[in-house]
Structure formats: structure tokens, C-alpha cells
Prior knowledge:
Elements: E1 2-8, E2 12-19, E3 25-34, E4 37-43, E5 56-64, E6 67-75
Antiparallel strand pairs: 1-4, 2-3, 2-5, 5-6
Amino acid sequence: ETQINYLLPRACQVKLTIYNVWGQTVRVLYDGYQEAGNQTLIWDGRSKDGTVLSSGVYFYRLVAGDFTETKKMSFMK
């Protein structure tokens, strides 16, 4: 598992998407409304069809209201 933590200064629509190194969408981890405050999402290393992915470098993009951030992460089995 990989834990993704972030802080929302205000309640808003949030979308968090996981991508592989080729920019392909691996999984939409969350797409919905969240309240303000500290948030945590857990990615279990599975793709959108439930396949367990290999260890490696992945990226996640957080879109929260008008804010967008992309970060690199390592997934190790």
C-alpha cells in the first residue's frame, strides 16, 4: 500500500488519479466531494481492473477545486 496525504483548506470537489511513467491512467483513486482538513487516501497497488501492478515509479495528480498538483511516488511490493 501507498498512503497519500493532503490538506484541503476548504471543502471542494477532489479527483486523485494514479498514472504510470508513460502518462497512462492506472486508476482514479477518488473522484468526489471532500470536506476541509487533512485527508488520506490509500492506494493498494492495483489498477482500475483490479490487477496488481509491478513495483516502480508512479505519479499521482490531485485536482482540488482550482488547485492541481502532480507528484512522483515509488511503489514497492
